[in-house]
């Protein structure tokens, strides 16, 4: 359940900015910085079915908590990651950001946004579209980021289609 | 022959269809290709991977004759349930008939050829063509035709040509449904040979004795020939090279991942690719006369999955003991075969309840479709590891498979170059040891699986079409 009442302007601006900056870190291939936005138990999840309820009853395109995500991020910069020779360039277009308070235990805010990703690698350009859901909690230390990601969920419109290599997170 | 760069990631998917001439004449008198010229025990010609003519012939002679996995009984539990399946080059429907039996029907109206259903699965009482409303029963028989007076009495509803076309042969093996477009040929049991035991082992691992398909499907695609996946699945020299980056990253994070049972299995999978050649050589390969292959002794050193003693597993083991007793339970859990490849296009992993099927789309475009099963009667949590296994191994994002897919695409591009046309497949040839039943064993680092798969390929390609689809 989310509280749909309008957030104070300044708070909404900070939450929206967090989502924009999170996407920019991926586009700039600052993967370690991107990973640092996740809470220790934070989950990055891309379901394989429209409206999928859970990652534990159905397969997923990505389903990684921070420790496993750390392996993925480390691998992205390995010189012999062959699927990244040459590297994938991405452009995340994030719009329609809607931030709400969350009443879910351990979650302070839930942010919905529209996402289009253009991906380019070796003369091959691909497009992905979908919606993102960020569940954030206020970072207890307040540093380096004011919020921590408990969940980033990406619902692609073609989540159940055959996919070629998905190397870089959405 | 070169693949043109994609404008989009999912261009309109043009599935290969036999040229009209070949359809009209299913037994071409003089095909331009002689398959025997393309493969010898020590080498294979690049045309086998890149030539559209070879692909066309394969669709006739391999995918329209061999037994192909076509679904699981649990996908269609109730009368009227259907699931759309690609059976070789053709879209067919797996249907549960009113009397409880299974039908496999071409998704094609005999009137103007329109596909009858569009959804991948569903439930209906009868089929109704969306074009001119011809209706058919669940068994494919023609029920009614609008404007039947337009036929001046010439139209007989019982005319065999007006019924939905049934796939020639359909058989279920312990819930796994296989089908063949050929009206004759070896029985399913003969065809499966020693690989039937891989399916047995998956069913035996379910305490209730049945499996239920669950968890959806993951599909990954690559721009390369379908054989590249099958040949790689039992190639044990590639892992430490191709997967170097995930091995290195996993080693760095070994402690954090190993502490959590949720990630310990994934860690093991990533690390296992870093085994040395002597360890891989100890994995025995087994090749079956029909082209099937499996790797044995795979879990002995904890490869792929750690040995389990946790409470969930103990509850699972107790349920198995109740059904099978001590000795049989130990035997079932002790089967440590990995990547049981049922030629031409199925990979079975019994321990995790996982199937991976290779779907050729065109000579240089392949889709890998992965599905999984719940072991009926097992604790729900056992399914978590099945999902984790496929998420880690068979998603397009997989830290393992993505490098394999990249290599398949590089092989395809390399083989399209018209330099030396021959590919060397001699590795380990001197170490092959043939048993009386025709099976061959070799150490894990041998290229025996590639030679064995191509041998089956050649015998199908030389045999020609075995028959046409029955009505």
Number of strands of chain B: 22
Give the SSE string of chain A: EHHEEHEEEE
Number of domains as seen in the coordinates of chain B: 2
How far apart are the termini of chain A?
25 Å
List low-pLDDT spans of chain B.
Answer: 1-13, 21-30, 467-471
Biggest sheet strand order of chain A reads 1-4-5-6-7-2-3
Q: How many distinct domains of chain A?
A: 1
Described by its quaternary structure, the protein is heterodimer
CATH class of chain A: Alpha Beta
Provide a count of the helices of chain B. Answer: 15
Shape of chain B: globular
What would you report as the Rg of chain B, rounded to the nearest angstrom?
A: 23 Å
Largest sheet of chain B: 9 strands, antiparallel
Low-pLDDT runs of 5+ residues of chain A are none
Nearest-integer average pLDDT of chain A: 95
Bin the strand percentage of chain A.
Answer: 35-45%
Structural class of chain B: alpha+beta
- What CATH first level of the largest domain in chain B would be assigned? Alpha Beta
Helix content of chain A: 10-25%
CATH topology of chain A, by name, is Nuclear Transport Factor 2, Chain: A
Largest interface: A-B, 41 and 51 residues
Account of the protein in words:
The complex is a heterodimer of chains A (170) and B (471). By secondary structure, chain A is an alpha+beta fold. Chain A has a single domain (2-156), classed as Nuclear Transport Factor 2, Chain: A (Roll). In chain A, 21% of the residues lie in helices and 41% in strands. Chain A has 3 helices and 7 strands. Chain A has helices at 9-27, 31-35, 66-76, and strands spanning 2-3, 38-47, 60-65, 89-102, 109-121, 124-138, 147-156. Chain A has a 7-stranded mixed beta sheet with strand order 1-4-5-6-7-2-3. In chain A, a hairpin with an 8-residue loop joins strand 6 and strand 7 (147-156). Chain A is globular, with a radius of gyration of 16 Å. The model of chain A has no long low-confidence stretch (mean pLDDT 95). With 471 residues, chain B is α+β, with helices and mostly antiparallel strands. Chain B folds into 2 domains: 68-173, Rieske [2Fe-2S] iron-sulphur domain (Rieske Iron-sulfur Protein, 3-layer Sandwich), CATH 2.102.10; 194-461, Naphthalene 1,2-dioxygenase Alpha Subunit, Chain A, domain 1 (Alpha-Beta Complex). Chain B contains 15 helices and 22 strands. In chain B, the strands form 5 sheets. In chain B, strands 13-19-18-17-16-15-14-22-21 form a 9-stranded antiparallel beta sheet, sandwiched between helices. In chain B, strands 6-5-4-7 form a 4-stranded antiparallel beta sheet, with no helix packed on it. Chain B has a 3-stranded antiparallel beta sheet with strand order 1-2-20. In chain B, helix 8 (244-252) packs across helix 10 and helix 10 runs parallel beside helix 13. The longest helix of chain B has 24 residues, at 311-334. Chain B is globular, with a radius of gyration of 23 Å. The chains are: A alpha+beta (170), B alpha+beta (471).
